[in-house]
Design a protein that fits this description.
This protein is α/β, with parallel strands linked by helices. It contains 11 helices and 16 strands. The protein has an 11-stranded mixed sheet, sandwiched between helices. A 5-stranded parallel sheet has the order 14-13-15-12-16, sandwiched between helices. A hairpin with a 6-residue loop joins strand 9 (179-182) and strand 10 (189-192). Helix 1 packs across helix 6 and helix 10 runs parallel beside helix 11 (327-338). The mean pLDDT is 95. The chain binds threonylcarbamoyladenylate and magnesium ion. The site of magnesium ion has 3 residues, from loops.
Length: 346
């Protein structure tokens, strides 16, 4: 059991955090997407302790974070198209797969020949990376199977007594993890949708960008996961989430019917709905996911709401959906997985 210190991110605490990284320890820090749990990517024991802290399966590789493109030369080979993408989207929520160099330990990449790299834009993340001078391996700072943390308190919930330090930088602006892009095939493939959308990538690359098969449905048994992260039941609240899709009035009526049935049967049940529908669902313990047209707001709130369901002991949750386009694709990927892709069409 270690003492976990949660401190506001300032010059002094960032320097202390950098020292922890340099001596092989773990530090949680804010990024513009979600909080990360960092270790020196070049130190296999330090990286291994990330897997222990999270309870993460060893075959799920980590993202390496850098603050300067000059660091790439040490850790990976260049890729066609990567320069254009880095010019357009770094620093920011885009992770790119590169052929790795031997200096990156197997434990980071789960033995794969590629390494995932990202340059975050959050000033605290950049200062920490600069101060440490290291490439930092960092998954999201949650226990495996829990929603990613979007405020420091979420990290404390999951990592208290497990890691020595959490840098508190407030709420993460985006609230969903980065887009993971594989450039090692003939066409670029999005392995995980995020803040950098398919349309943004296509506009920059002037070519079609493909989506990995299992973004909006479960992986078939015979199907090979392009990214190990796709194989696990992520972002799963303890309660059963069911999505309801269809015309606006029919959806609201169905949410109400299903939730009331459960409440009347004595189950803890609620709805997850747009701000505009909260008044119509006031007797169904409505959780406000954000405004119907503001998909960035919905992305920003989603993980915090999923955590609340567990705290409140919700047994069943009925949720509205948004079109799987733009950031909506990232939202529906996470919400779909939370629901194990159970969806009622009305
Ligand atoms: O926004 C983010 O990406 C956050 C912040 C902290 O940077 N990090 C994050 O890491 O979400 P994590 O470990 O929770 O998710 C990394 C994802 C996983 O789905 C993993 O399977 C995939 O990236 N991944 C990492 N390296 C890979 C590789 N070499 N090939 C394929 N997929 C890879
Ligand atoms: Mg994660």
């Amino acid at each position: 059991m270690v003492m976990t210190k949660m401190v506001p991110a300032d010059r002094t605490s960032i320097r202390e955090a950098a020292d922890i990284l340099k001596t092989g320890g773990l530090v949680a820090f804010p990024t513009e997407t979600v909080y990360g749990l960092g270790a020196n990517a070049l130190n296999p024991e330090a990286v291994l302790s990330i897997f222990t802290a999270k309870g993460r399966p060893a075959d799920n590789p980590l993202i390496v974070h850098i603050h300067d493109r000059a660091q790439l030369d040490d850790i990976c080979e260049m890729q066609p198209r990567a320069d254009i993408l880095m010019d357009a989207f770094w620093p920011g929520p885009l992770t790119i797969l590169f052929p790795r160099k031997p200096v990156i330990p197997d434990v980071v990449t789960a033995g794969l020949s590629t390494v995932a790299v990202r340059m975050p834009s959050h000033p605290v993340a950049l200062s920490l990376l600069r101060e440490s001078g290291l490439p930092v391996a960092a998954p999201s700072a949650n226990r495996s199977g829990r929603p990613s943390p979007t405020v420091a308190m979420h990290v404390l919930e999951d990592m208290k007594g497990i890691i020595p330090m959490i840098l508190d930088g407030g709420a993460c602006e985006i609230g969903l993890e980065s887009t993971v892009l594989d450039l090692t095939h003939e066409s670029p493939v999005i392995l995980r949708p995020g803040g950098v959308t398919k349309a943004m990538l296509e506009e920059t690359l002037h070519e079609e960008v493909l989506l990995a098969g299992s973004i909006l449905r479960p992986l078939r048994q015979d199907e090979k996961a392009l990214s190990q992260g796709m194989r696990y039941k992520h972002y799963a609240p303890k309660g059963n989430v069911t999505l309801v899709r269809g015309g606006e009035q029919a959806v609201v009526a169905t949410l109400r019917l299903l939730c009331r049935q459960d409440l009347d049967a004595g189950r803890k049940s609620c709805v997850l709905c747009f701000t505009e529908h909260v008044p119509m669902l006031s007797d169904c313990c409505p959780h406000d996911m954000g405004s119907i047209d503001n998909h960035a707001e919905i992305a920003h709130r989603l993980f915090d709401i999923l955590r609340h369901f567990d705290q409140e002991g919700m047994e069943t949750i009925y949720s509205e959906v948004i079109p799987p386009e733009g950031v909506g694709l990232a939202v529906m990927n996470r919400l779909g997985r939370a629901a194990a892709f159970r969806c009622i069409e009305v």
